[in-house]
Every structure is written in C-alpha cells, then in structure tokens.
Amino acid sequence: MQQLDIVLTLVFSIVMLIFMIFPAMKIVEWLESKVDIPGKWHNPLLFSTTLFLSLCIGLFLQFA
After folding, report:
1. Which of 59, 58, 63 is closest to 14 using CA atoms?
2. Which residues contact 20 (CB under 8 A, 6 or more apart)?
3. Total number of domains in the chain
C-alpha cells in the first residue's frame, strides 16, 4: 500500500507542475527583491521552488 501512495503522490505532483510555475515565479521575484541573489541562481531557484510547491500540493491531494 505504501508504494501505491508514493506513485499517486508523484502522479498528482506531475499534474500540478504546470499550475505551480506562476506562483513559483512570483515567489522567486519576491525573494530577489528582498535578498540579493545572483542572476545565475534564478533558474535553479525557480525550478526547485516549482518542484517543492507541486510536491506539497501532490501530498495535500493524496492525504487530505
């Protein structure tokens, strides 16, 4: 049963990747306005924030 939970969470997270790009862009813009972040960190920060948000939503959809 635990493997099925992991698979369903990943499926929900993959679907949410598209919808989490805009909030991640706004979060990264806000972080860049508050903290001096080098330009080369913009894309990795955006990508990791998108993954984190989609995993959080996937976990919420699976277990809520």
Report:
1. 58
2. 50, 53, 54, 57
3. 1
First to last CA, the chain: 17
Length of the chain: 64
Distance CA 37, CA 41 (A): 7
Range of the domain at 55: 2-28+39-63
List per-residue pLDDT tens for the chain, 64 residues long: 688 888 888 888 898 899 999 999 999 999 999 999 998 999 999 999 999 999 999 888 888 8
Q: Which pTM value belongs to this model?
A: 0.85
